[in-house]
Every structure is written in C-alpha cells, then in structure tokens.
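Hi everyone, sorry if this is the wrong subforum. Our group has a chain we'd like a structural model of before ordering constructs, and none of us has done structure prediction before. Sequence below.
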Amino acid sequence: MYIYPDSNAVRFTGRWDVTEKNAVTTAPGGMIELAFKGDYTVLFFDLAMNMYPVPHLWISVDNGAKIEVSVDRAIRIETEENKEHYVKIIYKSAVEIQHRWFHPLIGKINFIGAEADDVGILPEDNRKIIEFIGDSITEGVLIDEFRRFNEFDQFNRPYQDDSTATYAYLTAMALGMKPVIMGYGAVGATKGGCGSVPKAAVSYPYNFEGSQAKAQGSDIIVINHGANDSGASADTYVAEYKNLLDVVRKKNPGSKIVVLSAFCIVYVDELKNMIEKFNKENNDNIYFIDSSGWIPLEPLHPLRDGHIIVAKHLTEELKKIL
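Answer:
Right subforum, don't worry. Here is the predicted structure as tokens:
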C-alpha cells in the first residue's frame, strides 16, 4: 500500500510544509518518522530542482545505527522480520549556497510518501520541544571540516555538515527534549545569508517563501545570532535583535525564550543590556546566557568536540531555567 505524508503512520518534527501529497523542508535537522508493517518499505522523494550534490539524510530502522545516505527518488529498506517497524529519517546536511528560500527550491527535502504492506502505529513521543534559531553553527556547518572530496568547497558540505552533531541537537538529547532547528548559513540578526535566506526576523515566521511556519508549541526557544553580525554597528545589531525578539515572542506567547550570546563574543554587553531593557518595557522574562570563553574563537565553526563542549555548558544553564 502507499502511505501518504498526511497518514497517521507518519510524523514530522521541524519546520515542514505538509500537505496530503508531500512534505517539504529546507532546514537541516527536520525529522520524518514512519511506522509500517511488513519486511520492507520504500521511501519516495521528489527530486525536482535538486542539484548535485543533493542533501544527505540519516536513516535508522527500529532505533538501530544511523546510516548516512544521499536523498534519492526511491530508497528501499528491507528488514529480516515481517512485523511492525519504525523508521527515522533526519535531514543531515546540504549545500549552503543552494536556494533554500525562494522558489524554485533547490536545497530541500521533498518527501512524497512510502510503500509498505501496511501502516504501523508510531510510538508515543511526549517530550517537550526545544527550539533553536541560529546560523551555520546551529545548522552544523563544517563539523567534519576535514572531509574534503571536491575542489569546489561548497560541494563538500553534505559530507562535512551534520545537524545531529550540533550543540542544539546534543543539548536537546541531554535534556530529553525534542529538537526543532532553524539554522541557515551566513544569516544574522542584521543580514540575510546563504541560499537567499532573509535575515532572522524576516525569515522566522516562514518555512520558506510562501509557507507560513506553524508555532511549534516549544517549551523553550534558544536564539543564537551574532557570528554574522560583526560587520554591523552595535546599535544596529541590538535594534535588529530586538525586532527578532518581538517576532519570536508574538508567535510563541507561552514559551521561555533564551538568548545565547555568540560564541565569537560579538556585542555581548550591548545584547545583555538590550534584553534587560526589553524585559522591563514588555513585562517579559527573556533569559540571557553569556557563552564567552566556552570554546576558542577559532575555528569560527566548531568541530564535533567544540559542539560537545557548548552542549555541556548550555545544558547546565538551561537546567536552571527549566
């Protein structure tokens, strides 16, 4: 039988545009879960407008090891037992500069369904949601920087990047929470970035052009912008960051919001002062965490061990808030 994206046997986590016939995301870290019965399933993706190198996925079956694969028109999974199975698919990585905002979308995952003997029942997931808003560091760019196979550097990104090795994903796992990640390379509070993604306050309300993002029901939202904003003045930075806070708070009136200062130590005091003023003026309680000194300033994009260190610090700080 054919299992459509809107089936009860399919669940999406992240910033997805879901219809009866397809589900699209451009944000690495987005997850698909599928429950099926039988000894096989075939996952189907629409590759229209995808370009080389195509995005990479993590796929695991029955909570086993993750396997990295390139997204393809059809990905067949065979199991040793004819019974109910559970598949998890995570958008691992992509090429930063491929269009991920304006149509036609290139750096995207477009899931159009699966084939199996029958549908299964998804396991319950009652974890609270933690949402992350950030840039290439939050996306997981250059975590495995040494994996270079192509002369054109951007073509290495699907192999070098990993949304599941980021401080964001690791922190969520450490806290027993479900991660929703919005990270796009070169985006900042003051500027748009790779793939034509607009600046943070403009892009946050959308999955991509023309697709309104739904509120995730996040218990806590962590914002980390600044690595791409050093070219702007401090006044411009805090003004644009305030605009971002206004947008995020309007969409998430009941969520705890945490501002995590940039790891490269950009306008830390100015940001802290703005948040204090914001809280007084809006009778809010946005939290500020100073990440200064957690990791070295170089490399700008932390490797796996750097993300692990950040996650340990952030986990301890968020425990005080949760």
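For your construct planning: Residues 234-251 form the longest helix (18 residues). The radius of gyration is 19 Å.
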